[in-house]
Amino acid sequence: MLLEKIISISGKPGLFKLVSQLRNGFIIEDVTNKKKVSIGNSSQVSLLDNIAMFTFDKEVPLFEVFENVAKNNDYKETISHKSSDAELKEFMLSSLPNYDTERVYASDIKKLAQWYNILHKAGYITPESFVKAEPETLEGEPAEEVSIEKETKKAAPKAEKPAAPKVKATSAAKSAPKSTHTKKG
């Protein structure tokens, strides 16, 4: 799922996709109705790609939480963000079992459910959207992994005569502080 261009704007309901940047703001597109509008630089914008949820041992990126929700719901819509706090907590426990109950508030869980359902309605939640792409080379072919063993064998020094250490005279001069004052004598 590509979340790097999906944003939430403080004071505006819904989610938006960044379309382009203007001199004094951005052009955005509502993910559900595809209407484009411009916003100023002063708008408080949050990139979904930069949001994470607290667990007791780490922060989990929102992408991973959405993937858990999708798998738990067979890639269908989840509970409404207007559900009771008890239902929302149960939903959160099934989506992220070790979430930090003191730092993740009911309002955060409501927003998670609401955003998930918006993205689902807009077509962003599908089994294919969570497939991680393999690293590619410039030619478009999968990158080849190099094992540490191969690198160590190639880097082993030859057992011939040891070379004398090379010392640059300029390296010491570069690191020594230069004085701008001269003594007259």
UniProtKB/TrEMBL annotation:
Start and end residues of each DUF5606 domain: 3-48
Annotated spans, Disordered: 135-185
Biased composition (Low complexity): 164-179
Basic and acidic residues: bias regions: 147-163
Biased composition annotated in UniProt, kind: Acidic residues: 136-146
One Pfam entry name: DUF5606
Annotated ranges, domain DUF6852: 51-119
InterPro entries for the chain: BVU_3817-like_C_sf (IPR049281), BVU_3817_N_sf (IPR049282), DUF5606 (IPR041218), DUF6852 (IPR049280)
Top-level lineage group: Bacteria
The protein's name: DUF5606 domain-containing protein
Source organism phylogeny: Bacteria, Pseudomonadati, Bacteroidota, Flavobacteriia, Flavobacteriales
